[in-house]
Design the sequence.
């Protein structure tokens, strides 16, 4: 087993356990009007992904179904900080998530830029009929969205994740096949 495989197999179960609170941390950045719009836009795109009907990895896939959500949130946080590097001190939870994207980059290697591009494009997409522009542009919609994120976070049930190298092979295969080229 390689070092990166060991670190992923040790870390990913924790990311699955913390997914609900991580969504809350990203929502905190979205709700912080003191942060630049580019930061809040990246956070909204990452959160809106939770409600997409077609995930990169369907949520029902055993061991892997929510890892794509965890990946998207971390990459969205990294994109948010890349857009405004000076906000890390204002948003330490966002900075923590962004820092964790380094493990994803290391695992995916040449496929990471494709994931990054996919996540960046979430800022222009929509889920459940609501775009990122709608979320940022309408205060009442943003409040409703954040309430929905909080409800999702509370109802989220952590799936299992077997510490099996085969899961990493399946994960990389799913992402390689599903990420736009």
Sequence:
């Amino acid at each position: 087993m390689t070092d990166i495989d060991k670190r992923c197999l040790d870390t990913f179960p924790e990311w699955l356990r913390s997914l609900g609170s991580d969504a809350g941390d990203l929502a905190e950045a979205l709700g912080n009007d003191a942060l630049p719009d580019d930061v809040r836009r990246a956070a909204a795109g990452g959160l809106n992904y939770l409600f997409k009907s077609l995930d990169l990895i369907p949520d029902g896939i055993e061991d892997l179904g929510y890892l794509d959500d965890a990946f998207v949130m971390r990459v969205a946080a990294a994109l948010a900080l890349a857009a405004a590097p000076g906000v890390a001190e204002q948003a330490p939870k966002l900075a923590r998530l962004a820092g964790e994207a380094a493990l994803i980059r290391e695992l995916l290697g040449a496929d990471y830029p494709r994931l990054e591009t996919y996540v960046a494009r979430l800022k222009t997409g929509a889920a459940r009929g609501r775009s990122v522009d709608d979320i940022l542009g309408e205060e009442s919609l943003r409040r409703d969205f954040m309430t929905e994120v909080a409800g999702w976070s509370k109802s989220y049930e952590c799936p299992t994740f077997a510490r099996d190298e085969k899961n990493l092979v399946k994960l990389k295969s799913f992402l390689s096949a599903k990420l736009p080229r």
Remarks:
- Residues 3-178 form one domain.
- The chain has a mean pLDDT of 95.
